Amino acid sequence: MIEITNKINQKPYKLLYDYYYKAIEHSQESIDAICISSFDNLKKEVDSRYVNLKFIIGNKFIFFTNYDSPKSFQFKSHAQVAVVIFWPKINIQIRIKAHIDKADFDFSNDYFKHRSDKKNALAICSRQSKPTRSFNELRKNYDSVLNSADLSKRPSYWGGFELTPYYFEFWQGDDNRLNKRVSYSQNSGSWEETNLQP
User: Fold this and answer.
1) DSSP of the chain, one letter per residue?
2) Is residue 129 part of a domain?
3) Can you tell me the distance from the alpha carbon of 177 to that of 171, in angstroms, rounded to the nearest whole number?
4) Integer Cα distance of 114 and 160 in angstroms
5) Distance between CA atoms of 174 and 196, rounded to whole angstroms?
6) CB under 8 Å to 141, separation ≥6 — which residues?
């Protein structure tokens, strides 16, 4: 689930909220899963992965990860990302272009304190995407942290990122491919609406 607060009374956000609540009514699985594509400025290549979107607060879309992970270095090297959300139960795809930055440290601290011990133990012990000799070694390290560490204290290498959208595209699928597409581009504080062909 995504926690939505400080709602914005602008067309692309209102559409997003409406589709989100409709997807909930249709029992959409993994409703908080979003695909984020980022650019590695050093390697000159694009990378993508799914993350769990936890909050939409005003115009900020917030998820959490390891700050030492490859994607975090990509965000630092090129602070613009593309996002895709797909809710097949209602046949809606939402594309977003956004600027990305670290979330407020106090916000990350507070969120970490309210997570489960098991999730926090993994965040503390994992060196995300770094090689490991075996899964058993990882599990052993995890069990050790779970039984010994202060699991309410957020490590400095873990926290939130916030996306600030400047472009939305809503795609509504049709069985005959007569898909409805409408985009919203931010321009001087307002949103320009454009209908797009399938």
Assistant:
1) --EEES---SHHHHHHHHHHHHHHHTT-TTTTEEEEEEEETTTTEEEEEEEE--EEETTEEEEEEETTSHHHHHHHHS-EEEEEEEETTTTEEEEEEEEEEEPPHHHHHHHHHTS-HHHHHHHHH--TT---S-HHHHHHHHHHHHHHS-TTSPPTTEEEEEEEEEEEEEEE--TTS--EEEEEEEETTEEEEEEE--
2) no
3) 11
4) 14
5) 14
6) 125
Find the CATH number of the domain harbouring 176: 2.30.110.10
Residue 120: inside a domain, yes or no? Answer: no
Number of domains, the chain: 1
Tens place of pLDDT for every residue, the chain, 198 residues? 999 999 999 999 999 999 999 999 999 999 999 999 999 999 999 999 999 999 999 999 999 999 999 999 999 999 999 999 999 999 999 999 999 999 999 999 999 999 999 999 999 998 888 888 899 988 988 999 998 878 999 999 999 999 999 999 999 999 889 999 999 999 988 999 999 999
Please state the pTM of the whole predicted model.
0.93
Q: Quick one: which of 99, 54, 48 has its CA closest to 78?
A: 99
17/26 Cα distance (integer angstroms): 14
Look at residue 124 and tell me if it is in a domain: no
